Amino acid sequence: MEEIERLAQLIRESKKTIVFTGAGVSTESGIPDFRSPGGIWSKYDPEDFTIQRFLSSLDTRKSFWKASAEGELLMEAKPNPAHYAIAELHQLGKLDSVITQNIDNLHQKAGVPEDRVLELHGNMQWVVCLGCRSRFPLLQILQKVKGGIEVPDCPDCQGILKPDVVLFGEALLQETLREATRRAQNCDLFIVIGSTLVIYPAAYMPTYAREAGARLAIVNLTPTPLDHYATVVIRGKAGDIMPKVMERVRLF
Ligand code: NAD
């Protein structure tokens, strides 16, 4: 496929690549995305993912902790070939950073160092107290749920505990957003993988990169609003495409 060779060539020419990922990079790890048929919205009520509902409804918090303890939200998922291909970019010294909308920790599990992963929407492995802002590993708090406490509170100040992810209605982490913007404006290649590019401000990132002169590549199953703006667009499964791209990068 000509586009695969074209993306490999862009990577070979790049010194500072940013990979921007959305839920689509993890569907082949068994984590459904939000918008595809059979995605998360066909199973859960989006209202349950708003900060307002989480704070005001004890029942919502109860079902969150129950689902977590049953392993539904913890996602014991493993990285797939797309995550490993991205990690290989790091090993080759090409990767500036991964900017991700995902909360599943799979880039780190695949071998991208933590300080190279900018998580715009947080990380499901952590829990934060809304009172004192202390963070705790999810697994530590789940011990309490498994021990019979339906809605655990903060071990330090008894405040409300929330998964350390950005729920609907919450602002993004400003510091992470600033750092992601700065990096996007300084890369020479920006590769989008598995994102619909409709959630803002995250979806501004490819535009920042393009406006600053970077090349833009998009690997996604379905069209995105920025396809017309990209140097190369590849329609297909990230887990099929990215290993093929890396095979060609390695040839030179
Ligand atoms: P989305 O659900 O809106 O879109 C995912 C995109 O990926 C779609 O365009 C789809 O066509 C494409 N896609 C699906 N499988 C693919 C594959 N195998 N290869 C290539 N493309 C594929 O997700 P989004 O745009 O990332 O935004 C939704 C928000 O949901 C994100 O901000 C994210 O925080 C959150 N989310 C995260 C996870 C996760 O952490 N794994 C899972 C679901 C949702």
- Based on CA atoms alone, the radius of gyration comes out at 19 Å
| Ligands bound, unique | nicotinamide-adenine-dinucleotide
> SS-based structural class?
alpha/beta
**Run of helices and strands:** HEHHHEHEEEHEHEHEEH
Indicate the CATH topology of the largest domain: Rossmann fold
Give the proportion of residues in helices. Answer: 25-40%
What is the typical, i.e. mean, pLDDT?
92
- Gross CATH architecture of the largest domain: 3-Layer(aba) Sandwich
Q: Which key terms come to mind for this protein?
A:
252 residues; alpha/beta; Rossmann fold; SIR2/SIRT2 'Small Domain'; six-stranded parallel β-sheet; three-stranded antiparallel β-sheet; elongated
Report on this model:
The chain is 34% helix and 18% strand. It contains nine helices and nine strands. A hairpin with a 5-residue loop joins strand 4 and strand 5 (135-137). Helix 3 packs across helix 6 (138-146), helix 4 packs parallel to helix 9 (238-250) and helix 7 packs parallel to helix 8 (205-211). Bound molecules: nicotinamide-adenine-dinucleotide. The site of nicotinamide-adenine-dinucleotide has 28 residues, from helix 9.
Topology, element by element:
Elements lengths: L1 H12 L3 E5 L29 H6 L1 H12 L11 H11 L3 E6 L5 H5 L6 E3 L2 E8 L5 E3 H9 L14 E5 L8 H11 L4 E5 L11 H7 L3 E6 L11 E4 L2 H13 L2
Parallel strand pairs: 1-2, 1-7, 2-3, 7-8, 8-9
Antiparallel strand pairs: 4-5, 4-6
Helix pairs in contact: 1-9, 3-6, 4-9, 7-8
Bound molecules: nicotinamide-adenine-dinucleotide.
